[in-house]
Known about the structure:
With 69 residues, the protein is of the alpha+beta class. The protein has helices spanning 2-7, 25-33; strands at residues 11-15, 45-49.
Amino acid sequence: MMLTAHSLGxxxxxxxxxxxxxxxxxxxxxxxxxxxxxxxxxxxxVVMGYAAEEPKQAAPRKNVxxxxx
Length: 69
């Protein structure tokens, strides 16, 4: 979904924090509006939308590999 959104000029962001938030009234209300049953847990979601401005290009990566032992 995120690759397709990008190809259409739509930004996206992966969220994996919902398991700890599903009991909050506002989150539960949104999930109920989406027909997610009360006994189901959402482990991840994708937020999509159009950027308010053109994103800046990322700095070039260095050809360095760090191995931490």
